[in-house]
């Protein structure tokens, strides 16, 4: 317990320092700023800081234990975050959803950053799963499930703090069925410093952050079981995540949240009016 608190204080301090200086630097030199939903220009991809802190912590565990699992998780987490970072920098709003990026490529021959994510993220998860489990069926399942989780949390990153709130809510609901070890708890608590700045609209999470949060949610579920694709809970969550991804192609989650009194209250909690 003492080591957990010590690690949290060290990595929380590192995160706060990085957030402060990166935000200050980007605003001062007008770099990587995008308009938020209010039309205010703020740093657009600060989720890369959150993922970097997580990756450094995973590497720390690897160097202490020499467990290959931790190195694979660190590399895959960084790759998924960096893919989102590229989308934050070079992406546009010409196409949305799976269908939009595919149609854009077929009709115009344009290879969007969204299409890059659709190809590269499943590939990263598939390779990681193959190295860890050496089972093709599980690796295919993990690639599909993990990619759907990443995309789902990306869809929630529309308003300040929403993506991290959804992570907390989902984890609380699932905590009755899955075991959260000390590493998972530390990862969750390290979202708090970032959440405060995100909620106050000092910076955006961006795809660099929402991607890796979706991947973390996937890891919380799948790393809790030795037989991932045979777990009833995993399949139930998979169906739910798959269904929400399909629904997102036809409806707006933001509109549903805004129209529902309870969901809107949770969404607005702590946000600027």
What's a concise summary of this model?
Keywords: Membrane, Transferase, Transmembrane, Transmembrane helix. The chain has 273 residues and is mostly helical. The chain has helices at residues 2-28, 47-65, 68-90, 97-108, 113-133, 136-156, 162-174, 182-189, 191-199, 206-222, 232-248, 253-259, 261-268, and strands spanning 33-35, 41-43.
Topology:
Layout: H1 2-28, E1 33-35, E2 41-43, H2 47-65, H3 68-90, H4 97-108, H5 113-133, H6 136-156, H7 162-174, H8 182-189, H9 191-199, H10 206-222, H11 232-248, H12 253-259, H13 261-268
Antiparallel strand pairs: 1-2
What does this entry look like structurally?
- The protein has 273 residues and is mainly alpha-helical.
- It has one domain (2-268).
- Helices cover 74% and strands 2% of the residues.
- It is built from 13 helices and two strands.
- A two-stranded antiparallel sheet has the order 1-2.
- A hairpin with a 5-residue loop joins strand 1 and strand 2.
- Helix 2 (47-65) packs antiparallel against helix 3 and helix 5 packs across helix 6.
- Residues 225-229 have low confidence and may be disordered.
How would you classify the quaternary structure?
single chain
Gyration radius, to the nearest Å? 18 Å
Number of helices: 13
Helix content bin: over 70%
Strand content: under 5%
The backbone outline, from C-alpha atoms, is globular
Low-confidence stretches: 225-229
N-to-C series of helices and strands: HEEHHHHHHHHHHHH
Widest beta sheet: strand line-up: 1-2
- The total beta strand count reads 2
Largest sheet: 2 strands, antiparallel
For the termini, the CA-CA separation is 39 Å
Overall domain count: 1
The structure class reads mainly alpha
Overall pLDDT: 87
């Amino acid at each position: 317990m003492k080591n957990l608190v010590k690690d949290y204080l060290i990595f929380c301090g590192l995160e706060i320092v990085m957030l402060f200086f990166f935000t200050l630097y980007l605003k001062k030199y007008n770099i990587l700023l995008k308009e938020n939903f209010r039309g205010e220009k703020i740093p657009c991809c600060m989720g890369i800081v959150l993922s970097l802190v997580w990756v450094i912590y995973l590497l720390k565990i690897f160097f202490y234990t020499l467990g290959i699992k931790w190195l694979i998780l660190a590399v895959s987490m960084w790759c998924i975050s960096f893919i989102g970072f590229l989308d934050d920098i070079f992406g546009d709003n010409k196409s949305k959803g799976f269908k939009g990026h595919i149609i854009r490529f077929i009709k115009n021959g344009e290879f969007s950053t969204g299409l890059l994510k659709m190809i590269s993220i499943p590939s990263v998860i598939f390779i990681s799963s193959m190295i860890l489990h050496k089972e093709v069926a599980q690796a295919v399942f993990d690639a599909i499930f993990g990619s759907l989780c990443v995309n789902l949390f990306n869809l929630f990153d529309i308003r300040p703090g929403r993506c991290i709130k959804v992570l907390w809510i989902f984890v609380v609901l699932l905590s009755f069925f899955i075991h959260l070890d000390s590493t998972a708890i530390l990862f969750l608590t390290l979202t708090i410093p970032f959440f405060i700045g995100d909620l106050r609209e000092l910076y955006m999470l961006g795809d660099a952050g929402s991607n890796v949060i979706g991947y973390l949610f996937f890891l919380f579920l799948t790393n809790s079981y030795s037989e991932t694709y045979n777990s009833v809970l995993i399949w139930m969550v998979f169906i739910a995540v798959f269904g929400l991804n399909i629904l997102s192609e036809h409806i707006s989650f933001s509109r549903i949240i805004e129209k529902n009194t309870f969901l809107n209250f949770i969404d607005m909690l702590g946000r600027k009016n």
